[in-house]
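(Deposited chain)
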Amino acid sequence: VQLQASGGGLVQAGGSLTLSCLPSGSIFSINLMAWYRQAPGKQRELVARMNRGGSTVYADSVKGRFTISRENAKNTVYLQMNSLKPEDTAVYFCRIATASSYVYWGQGTLVTVSS
C-alpha cells in the first residue's frame, strides 16, 4: 500500500490549500494519521496528528490555521491550511501508523507560499 499525497502548490500569503492523502489500498487498524513537513535545510517536523479516537494535536506554529480531518471509509486524511505564511513553505508528508506499529509514509507534496 502506498500513500498518495496531493494538493500542494503555489499560493500567496494569506491563502488556503487543502492537502489530501489517499492510500492505494486498504489499511487496517489505523492508530494514527498525521501530517509532517520539511522545509529546506530543516528537519522534518510534526504539523498535525489525529488518533483513532479523533483527538488531535497541532504544532504551535499552525494552531488556529490548520485543521486535520479524515474520511474513515477511504482511510483518507486531509489537511486544511488557511492563512498561509511564507514560513509554511515546505514539503508536506502524510503518515499513517497502524495498531501493529507499521508505518506508511506518503511521497510528499510541495507547498510554496509567496510573500
In short: The first strand starts at residue 3 and ends at 6. The radius of gyration is 13 Å.
